[in-house]
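TICKET #2291
ISSUE: user wants both folds in one file
ATTACHMENT 1:
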Amino acid sequence: MIADVMQRIQAKVPQLDKRIYGAADFANLMRTNTLPKQTPSAYVLGLGLQGGTSDAGAGYYTQMFDRAIGVVLTFKSYDATADRLLDDIEGLLDQVIAAVVGWGPNEEVGVFRLARGNLVTMKSGTVIYQIDFTIKDQLRITP
């Protein structure tokens, strides 16, 4: 599913052209305490699952659950306060949200919805913002 979200953002947000990465690249940034060479950049990460209602009967077990995906956006400004960057960031956030919300990969039960967005850090002209999305899915298991 992460690859599907990456492809969707790539197709719908031209400003992020060839600057959408996965968890391994994000982990490398964290490990080396660096920023990507080109910004804005996006990192699509799996954030986990949240179980919902379940039912067992007639030899089947079903359970609804939400799958969470995070998109971490990184921005760099040569203005140390990043003041001029904030308007550009808002526009890109809106584009990423519009690319993901209401859409879902074919095999999922639901479509993505916006869960939350928050500023992770803003210092020395660097802005990191995370947008979280969830999508409803269903387990169907024959025990």
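ATTACHMENT 2:
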Amino acid sequence: MYKRILVPLDGSATATRGLEEAIRLAHALRAKLHLFHVVDLHLVYMDYSGTAELTDYVHALREAGQALLHKAQALAARQDVSAEVHTEECRTAETINLILQEARRTHADLLVIGTHGLRGFQRLVMGSTAEGVARLSPVPVLLVRGQSA
């Protein structure tokens, strides 16, 4: 059964629901979690107008990602689930590829990801990381829907 579960986290309520489901699975299966966060810098560099100190903002994004992962790791530990954390940075819109690379790097045998439940024009315009991951993943993917979806 599943022994290494990858959980991409972005700080959203839906991602938290995915984390909670992954923790339940990991606990039941005695699996290990791999918690992953992409520090998305591509909009920062694409839209930099020079009005703020860029290095401070990038540093804050990195710290927020680490805090998110450590909070998730503590939540897993309270349920007696072991979890490793890892971040990657991207300066282009390559989040899906980074998640898939992380699945390969960690030898994940399951990927648990929250969906935002977007429909219609919003989905068309914004795209869907979860959909792309599910479509391209080399391992099974459990999609966890948000409460309002």
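RESOLUTION: both attachments delivered.
EXTRA DETAIL ON ATTACHMENT 2: The chain is about 50% helix and 20% strand.
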